TrEMBL record, chains A, B:
UniProt gene name: ntaA_2
UniProt cross-references to SUPFAM superfamilies, sorted A to Z: Bacterial luciferase-like
Superkingdom of this protein's organism: Bacteria
Keywords annotated in UniProt: Flavoprotein, FMN, Monooxygenase, Oxidoreductase
NCBIfam families (alphabetical): FMN_nitrolo
Domain Luciferase-like: 30-380
Positions that bind FMN: 58, 100, 150, 154, 225
Gene3D superfamilies with a match to the protein in the record: Luciferase-like domain
Family label: Belongs to the NtaA/SnaA/DszA monooxygenase family.
Name assigned to this protein: Nitrilotriacetate monooxygenase component A
UniProt-listed CDD domains: Nitrilotriacetate_monoxgenase
Any Pfam family hit: Bac_luciferase
Molecular functions per Gene Ontology: monooxygenase activity; oxidoreductase activity, acting on paired donors, with incorporation or reduction of molecular oxygen
Length: 442, 442
């Protein structure tokens, strides 16, 4: 009989706050996303709480927003993930370190080498979040006039994955003999030259670094599109993001895991961790009040810009202090419009309140006491909507301290989360096997 | 009256030993170049000795050697410099951190962002060693069939430098106001969009990170060719390498510094630090014996391969235990051949001894007591052959400990080297000004 399933917890740390107003919350650190001392302390607190991983999203450009919204965003200055994570590796010992790297605007030799280096420096704690780049403005920083098409991006991503993993397997695990007497540093029979020439990429190899401690760093993905689900089923070991409703998450979970056997994979070898925005209080009212206080800090112009996108209708002329007017038909997402209209009719919320609500954060949100949030997490886990969560903190340090000091102990009391790390690598934490070397089978 | 000139000292740490046999030296750490705990300890020792910088060369491929030599080389597995240096930044406080990054096989947006991130994480200690890639095999790892021509590489490097420094200047130093009350994170008037479109590169900008602590990380270069000297005079703040003979180094020093006024620069704003391979002993005989012991560990096949390259003649058929035979004319470097032939005739060295000598390390070498090596360093400094040295350790840890424990105190006793850091940034250590922002002049 196997152990009952437990939650895996990642911490979503770039942007350090997904909510537009995180940096304005009273008592917070407005520069937290760009302060190494703060980030070091957060990583060490998360490790003390036994989190699986510290997770960094990324963009290779400032966000593609109008200046009225951009000037309010802390994301315009933050660290390159693959520069920050090695620094955090040196001041932590167990927590996993996952960085996003685009397959569209990178070279596979660099990506393979940097993640292998991080995996060695951290003793096996690296993860690679493979993205094809969502922000079209990235193209303009890399010599292109326009973003690559979605289909081309995914075809390139698949080939890129094969090249990176092929480079990681350049050396057998026991290639480096360092025979001081004979003066032989490695066994030439344990070196594989990849010599890849495909549709998008041409890379000779070998990689100039030993095979990673974990064999391969953990492969993470976020895409929820049809192409994203398929590449996840074929290659991902952790998936981030799965929609904000329980039923949709269950559908996603069953769909992606259901595709895995056809790809020759065990569904247990992929962990699905949707993002969860968590606001805690000693009472439900206190938690709701914190959330309301945060939402009230969303500037109206940011909120109206977001609301217009979600409604598919320009909301900038609406009366801010009146209820939502009747809306024309939209060619944008009808479900997004219907969701907001339904909420507006039910609550009678003003346009200003709606703008603040969608201007903050619109995904899966859990607000309540530690017991209430633990109940919700447990429901998601046992109904197979997820294997855990990537926790998004509403503000720092208080929102992070609340999770570490009140929610994690509640989850541990219920046996839903570890009280000690059982292993040393990110694969150990996630219960993932170490991949065999494709060129040097055991 | 200004302070008398003092030496600047860098530590050449990738490869951790430039000598082929460093990893075989008795009592050494054969895996030192690939062990984070060892490298961390070395960085902390060098910082305690007040070194200016920890310097990492780099190659984006395994070395282009025949397998008989390659299998003896520790460089085949080592860390990506821009992954190792952030980790070292987290466990040191003052020492500068210089990494090599190629302008031929990188994108300027990545380079600008990573060095800016390192500069912020380290509080102003980053340096960028700009190279155009010397190892032709790198091309094969980046989608090309052959290395770019020397002239094209240098033209691209010059444009690449303009783009990187332009991206570093994307934000005025005081752009990030973080006005919590108003909800404004930055002042839009203090953002510059580069919008570069040149012969080789097209990059819109802005960079998604604040201007570096140092304005720009310190610009380092190594090239000694005509094109390399000119780009150094125009852009470099530290130059590594200048030939192994005093007269040649003086010529290089005078030539490069002499070109600077025409480029509108103060010659004091460039520091020239040739590499110096240093072997110390309590007596000269002891130092010579260490060097001989190390050279004796160079495998004959590595040495013969190197000797053949230097002579421009296949030496593999020569009698190893006989003196060097008469040689045919060569189309390779006549000066390299003449130098070795002269040494062979003067000393009567056997082919085996010559192979060991050139197979180890052939550049500027200082062997002796701390006082003797300090004498030589002082002569180079006062006769304006250099502003200091990038120290190459013959083996580790002993060779590094010898420098830290015996040579540095001797230099400090003579007033030739600092006893405390006077500032916090690499620019402070080197006596370099902080560049003004080209788009937001003070």
């Amino acid at each position: 009989m196997s152990q009952p399933r437990r939650l895996h917890l990642g911490a979503f740390m770039r942007p350090i706050g997904i909510h537009t107003a995180w940096w304005r919350y009273p008592g917070g650190y407005p520069d937290a996303n760009f302060s190494f001392p703060h980030l070091k302390r957060f990583a060490q607190r998360l490790e003390a709480a036994k989190f699986d991983a510290f997770f960094m999203a990324d963009h290779l450009a400032v966000m593609n927003m109008p200046m009225a919204a951009l000037k309010r965003s802390a994301t315009v200055t933050s660290f390159d993930p693959m520069t920050l994570l090695p620094a955090l590796a040196a001041v932590t010992e167990r927590i996993g370190l996952i960085a996003t790297a685009s397959t569209t605007y990178n070279e596979p030799y660099h990506v393979a080498r940097k993640f292998a280096s991080l995996d060695h420096i951290s003793n096996g704690r690296a993860g690679w979040n493979l993205v094809t780049s969502g922000n079209p403005d990235e193209a303009l920083n890399f010599g292109r006039d326009a973003h690559l098409d979605h289909a081309v991006r995914y075809a390139r991503a698949r080939e890129f994955f094969d090249v990176v993993t092929g480079l990681w397997d350049s050396w057998a695990d026991d290639a480096f003999i360092r025979d001081v007497e004979e003066g032989v540093y490695f066994d030439p029979d344990k070196l594989h030259v990849l010599d890849h020439a495909g549709e998008f990429l041409k890379v000779k190899g070998p990689l100039n670094i030993a095979r990673p401690v974990q064999g391969w760093p953990v492969i993470v993905q976020a895409g929820a599109s049809e192409a994203g689900r398929q590449i996840a089923a074929e290659t991902a070991e952790m998936v981030f993001g799965a929609g904000s409703k329980l039923a949709a998450a269950q559908e996603f979970y069953a769909d992606v895991k259901g595709r895995m056997p056809a790809a020759g994979r065990d569904p247990d070898h992929l962990k699905i961790l949707p993002g969860a925005f968590i606001v805690l209080g000693t009472t439900r009212d206190e938690a709701e009040a914190k959330k309301a206080r945060l939402d009230a800090l969303v500037p109206t112009d940011s909120g109206i810009a977001n609301l217009s996108v979600r409604l598919g209708v320009d909301a900038s002329g609406f009366d801010l202090d009146a209820p939502l007017p009747d809306l024309p038909e939209t060619n944008a997402s009808k479900s997004a419009q219907a969701q907001i209209v339904g909420y507006a009719r039910k609550t009678g919320a003003t346009v200003r309140a709606l703008a603040q609500r969608v201007g903050g954060y619109g995904g899966l949100t859990m607000v309540g006491t530690p017991a209430e949030v633990a109940d919700q997490m447990e429901e998601w886990l046992v109904t197979r909507a997820c294997d855990g969560f990537n926790v998004m903190f509403p503000f720092v340090p208080e929102g992070l301290d609340d999770v570490v000091d009140t929610l994690v102990p509640e989850l541990q009391r219920r046996g839903l989360f570890r009280t000690e790390y059982e292993g040393t690598t990110l694969r150990d934490h996630l219960g993932l096997p170490r991949p065999a070397n494709q060129f040097f089978p055991a």
